[in-house]
Amino acid sequence: MSKNSICAWQELALGCAVVEPGNASQLRTGDWRTLIPVLNEEECIKCGMCAVYCPEFCISEREDEFYRPDFDYCKGCGICANICPKDAIKMVMEEK
Amino acid sequence: MLKRVGIEVSLAVAEAVRLARADVISAYPITPQTHIVEELSHYVANGELDAEFIPVESEHSAMSAAVGSAAAGARTYTATSSQGLALMHEILFIASAMRLPIVMTVANRSLSGPISIWNDHSDIMAERDIGWVQLFVEDGQEALELSMAAFKIAEDHRVLLPTIINMDGFILTHMIEPIEFPDQKTVDAFLPPFEPAMRLDPAHPVSMGPVGVPEVYLEAKKQCEQALLDSKPVVKEVLDELNELFGRDYDLVQTNGKDGAETRFVTMGSLGESVYTAVEALNAEGKDVGQTRIRLWRPFPVEEFLAACKGAKRLIVIDRAISPGSVCGPVAQELKSVLYGQPNAPEIVNVICGIGGRDVPIEEFKEIYALAQAGKLEKTYTLWGLNSNA
Which of B13, B95, B230, B386 has the fewest CB neighbours in a 10 Å radius? Predict the structure, then answer.
């Protein structure tokens, strides 16, 4: 019964308020995604424009110096692909 | 004994809000509520009340500003009526869901169309399920005292819900009555300063009124409904305290007339006074009749109502609103669901009267009683006074 619920009603904060700042990170918004950005490493110049424009702030520089999204939070909006000056990002249908 | 002052009831309500030391009043004037907020704006302009008066551009904004102000931790008041209450509709749910103890006076008035400024209960009956505590007052003294009590009820940490004081438009709002005013010291002792359980504070950040995804909405609704149900003993407690302080006998449900009478009138609001007089006269004629007056409408005081109607075989339920397409008026609907499955449940006879300001003199309640006794009223509901002589 309760498997579709976040928590018991008695445990909710007053008026369903969010009392813990920054807890949006607990919500894995990536599962809404239809399209997924795929990076062509040959074309990428590591300029970081995709990271700057990502509305989810989920793209960051990784160990290999490429900018890559955290797929827990990427909604597949395609802004990164649209802003990329080298057309190095393609949005493709995600297979789940 | 305090001195009685002859004063318009609207102005007495404004005085109650002043005595309650409201911090913010956000309101839009609408007949017949206008005099209340007009007087409050004078108080603020004259420096008699240290509050912020927000003259908004509509009732939708009035309630939105009230939500913001209560969330910031200010004692907040507004008043409205009819179309104005309807315009507030969507924000009324937000105020209760966010558990904000706003106090509002509703000067009950019919809804358009046709355009009518006169009194009935159709405005508030369209807002039964907003999750607010709702009380009905019958006279000016009660309007004054319950307006102050409303803050105490709403702000109680066991409640934390917005509260409406319903008072009949014109019949109460524009009536000049002798009213006893308490002094500020008494009110301060009765009503401590507002201490919010949660507020918008940069030092302790919270997000109030967030998105309720399907995984949390149901639980949030349950929390809100439970708070409303739990408010009943608090309302009782506050009324008891008020009775002690001011020498009254306010209760959730009130009775008068013959004890254990076979027939009882059920009323809400100022028509209760007319029915009271009719019942007294009928009792003097030896008729077996009583009256049950509902003061607390939400949460509905089921046990208290059943106790107040004990022994009755017939309830003549007076409704002040039409519920088109239903089997009876809204109060009768409520009482039918309260009585369903109860042993020896009385029969309900529903009379819808006084719609859109139509006058119902005391004599007509005697007539209603006689027709009910003779079984000559409609099985569903009777639109009292309807001209059908085509």
Answer: B386
